[in-house]
Design a protein that fits this description.
The complex is a heterodimer of chains A (220) and B (330). Chain A has 220 residues and is α/β, with parallel strands linked by helices. Chain A has seven helices and ten strands. Classes of the chains: A alpha/beta (220), B alpha+beta (330).
Amino acid sequence: MITFERVSKRFEGGHDALRDVSFEIGADELVFLTGHSGAGKTTLLRLVMLLERPTRGRVVVNGRDVSRIARRGIPAHRREVGVVFQNHRLLFDRSVFDNVALPLYIAGYDHREVGKRVRAALDKVGLLRHERAMPVTLSGGEQQRVGIARAVVGRPPVLLADEPTGNLDPALSAEIMTLFEDFSRVGVTVLIASHDLALISRLRHRIITLREGRLMGAPA
Amino acid sequence: MAARPARREGARREGARVQRTRVSHRFNAWVRHHRLSAADSLRRVLERPTASLLTWLVVGIALALPVSLALSLDNLRALGGRVDSQAQLSVFLRPAVDAVAGQALAEELGQRAEIAAATFRSREEALEEFRARSGFSDVLGGLEDNPLPHLLLVVPRDPAQAAALAEEIGALATVDEVILDLAWLERLRRLTELGARLVLVAALLLAAGVLLVLGNTIRLAVEGRREEIEVTRLVGASDAFVRRPFLYSGLWYGIGGGVVAALLVAAVFAALRGPVAQLAEAYGADWRLAGLGLIDAFGLVLAGGALGLIAAWLAVGRHLRLDPGELPGN
């Protein structure tokens, strides 16, 4: 579902964020991406969602070589990749419902369908009764769950999460991870960047470790 | 190997989605987003009445200025045209020429093909007319002698040949002087031409000013909604989707400015109409000031809207070229 073939990313100024990274993640798989900050986790995620282009190598997402996707095709690609951000990136001028509905409005869903799907997604993350609430009235964990609902509401085949538990206490973090495991179980490919080793090692999923832009323990 | 069935599954899921968002749904969603963007933008414009009113006034004044100038110029041209078509030669006869000879000359000239009409006006008639019109009757009454010569008024068939005709008539022995009132007309024509050029330059400069003002207003709106733009782009919004609400904002600002401009021009010309009519009356002309017509006013509003759209397009375009949001860290 996500394939990296000898991918390198060098930023202007000569910083090598990723060096010769290769891996493959199948559908239904949940994979953790770990490493110190600055190891290249975020860059890797940005390559998948086409916020960056690789300097060398090939990134294949959902069967498509993303380097072949022209600028015009990027929005359609992003609708195939749900993303959960560490700081939620919710819009505070609108309700929980409207935040979650945003990807559906953009994709052009019929508004009855929007209502159905938004409620299904909110129900999944346990926030259905907060649909009319403004995000600022919610706790950090609830805000993060709104962010997750927004990421999955369009039923993307690929779900990325960048430090989704970064600001949460261990109990809430475990809860959030359970949610991701549920999505993985229904066929979504999940890639979670996290440096919370204690948490992710308990969860018995594949772990990809980056150090200074290189993959650790990868087959040579 | 494991990726292969996965790919098929992904394709199947995608296929199902495509079916759900059929073309008609997409079209409806597109129309709905237009409606939402238009309404939301209008709400945002009206939410800040003072700022919006100021923008409208700036745009309105900037549009009203060249339009008022152009209208004044049109009026001047219309006036020039009326006088132009009545171009006539004033032929002053030598003092020695008497009324009978003058009458005969008038008849002779009147029969020529290139002359539409030639009328004789005796010195007595001229004095009478002068006395009646100028209000100098007391002064003129004190004169012992009539200082005015006999006069022929000659109207050429083709105003363009007036100058040649004046020269020809001027060469006659009985003619003292021919005054062709075309010189000032020519000057007026040149001046209106220069005026038209100046109005064009002013209009271009002020349109550029309007673009900058509106562009800056939209740019501030874009800055204020930066987070929203970044997030919508991260979840798959196209450039058109991001641009749409701002295009509507530009449209509302521009249309509002156009309405203000039309009102200003109408007000200016309404204020001028009375004095101009009095002035025309004093000159014995039944000439009226032509203001802004309904169609012109509508055009002005449309022009304002077009400028707003262009300004918004440029302002948002600048932003869209930048990288969409940053992910935190690394």
